[in-house]
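Protein data:
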Amino acid sequence: MLTHFDRGPDPMDAVLNQDTAPRILHLVLGLLKKRGGPASVGEDQNLRDAGMTSLDMVNLMLAVEGEFDLFIPETEMTPDNFSSVSAIDTLVSTLLKAA
């Protein structure tokens, strides 16, 4: 007699458990490299202080959407949500869980 139904692993677990911060850091460093910016950035370092411009931020938003195959609502496109790698990581994790 079966006491519970095991459906196997949920495919969304792979998406939700992926480590997003290194992927975000890679996107950030790629944009900074184009500007001759630093070769490294701390997770909590302010990205504007690291050399990102307003145009870089727009490109970063688009790159994050493409990298994680998600849509960032206009209400979430705020300077606070894109101030650092850790802030972007929190946003991406939240959006992936909501999907």
Summary: Confidence is low (pLDDT under 50) at residues 1-17.
